[in-house]
Amino acid sequence: MTEVGKALVSGVTGGIGGQVVDQMASQGWDLILMARQQTQAQKLRERLMHEYPGQSFWAYAADMMDRASLSATLTQISHDHPSLNALINLAGVLSGQPRHSEAGIEWHVHGNVLAAHQIQEALRASLARGADTGRKSVVLHMSSGAANGAKDPWRKGGTPNFGKPGMMGAYATSKAMIAAMVAHDAAEWASEGILLRAVDPGPTATGMARGDGVPVLVRPFSGWFKKPETSARQILAALPPEAMNGASGLFVARGRQRRMPRLAANTGFQDQVAEFIRQSA
Ligand SMILES: NC(=O)c1ccc[n+]([C@@H]2O[C@H](COP(=O)([O-])OP(=O)(O)OC[C@H]3O[C@@H](n4cnc5c(N)ncnc54)[C@H](OP(=O)(O)O)[C@@H]3O)[C@@H](O)[C@H]2O)c1
To answer: Are strands 137-142 and 57-61 parallel, antiparallel or unpaired?
Structure first.
């Protein structure tokens, strides 16, 4: 292992994920690459091994929407990598169609919240061991500025209403939920030497920004969004443990700490999200 550290990155085939991987590799990180398809993860691994022969790269596959598949892969990863310094969770979904996972959970909530939590929990012991050396481990989960427009799914009581599909609906809700999860879990995880941070990459010209989950009027302008390499650089500003005054449980956008979206900052909402995650596990 190099002295820079070892990190797991999910969503490495994505517009932003690909750039995060390239920038971290150029900084000297050893990287565990997690993708939906093994062939894609392996292809990326081979390119990186060729470009950075002094570093180590591993390839794993898992479908975030399939709890069992994700669990099997994560068990293997935590066995193969008992010590980790960072987790950057970039895999995410945005759909304009009403969809549910096989577990019957709203698509965005499953992909952007429950899968992220499953990854975080499965790697908790490895991240804590990574922090044993005295240097804190860091987890970055992707939120979004859309979280600022999210409505509380529990506002009417009873069964949660995550909203219609799309960026301004269930996607926004899921991104408020992941930020709330980060705020809720931060103190407990900090006691194990692990810092949790929610990051908004900002509007970025990737496949997701051109997809059917983005409002029709916004889609034609997605070509003018930030380049993925710019977003990757801003995301990675939150990676050094000492960045952001060494704080945990915070919201980062454009490379700086920002105010947590109002709903995510609400401790009642944070407790609801934590309970929902616990019940869905
Ligand atoms: N682009 C933006 O404007 C923007 C703004 C704010 C936040 N974000 C967030 O930033 C993150 C990265 O977004 P992006 O723009 O880079 O999106 P992207 O290009 O669509 O990449 C999404 C990544 O998630 C992976 N993924 C999707 N479904 C999966 C599944 N079921 N199992 C495993 N992997 C799956 C994709 O893998 P495949 O290649 O196999 O599909 C891909 O690697 C996301 O969390 C997104 O919500 C993006």
So the answer is: unpaired
Decide if 29 contacts 4 (C-beta within 8 A): yes
Joined tokens for residue 117: 């939590």
In a 3-state reduction of DSSP, which class is residue 32? strand
Q: Which atom of ligand 1 is nearest to the CA of 17?
A: 16
Residue type, 127: L
Instruction: Give the homologous superfamily in CATH for domain 6-280.
Output: NAD(P)-binding Rossmann-like Domain (3.40.50.720)
Ligand 1 center from residue 12 Cα (angstroms):
9
Per-residue pLDDT of the chain (281 residues; tens, 9 = 90+): 568 999 999 999 999 999 999 999 999 999 999 999 999 999 999 999 999 999 999 999 999 999 999 999 999 999 999 999 999 999 999 999 999 999 999 999 999 999 999 999 999 999 999 999 889 999 999 999 999 999 999 999 889 999 999 999 999 999 999 999 999 999 999 999 999 999 999 999 999 999 999 999 888 888 899 999 999 999 999 999 999 999 999 999 999 999 999 999 999 999 999 999 999 99
Do the Cβ atoms of 226 and 179 come closer than 8 Å? no
Q: Is the CB of 193 under 6 A from ligand 1?
A: no
Residue of 9, 16, 171, 181 with the most ligand 1 atoms within 8 Å of its CB, for mutation: 16
Q: Is the pTM for the entire model greater than 0.90? A: yes
Determine whether the shortest distance from the Cβ of 209 to ligand 1 is under 6 A: yes
> Which of 37, 93, 94, 227 to mutate for ligand 1's pocket (most ligand atoms within 8 Å of CB)?
93
Specify whether the CB–CB gap between 237 and 252 falls below 8 A. Answer: yes
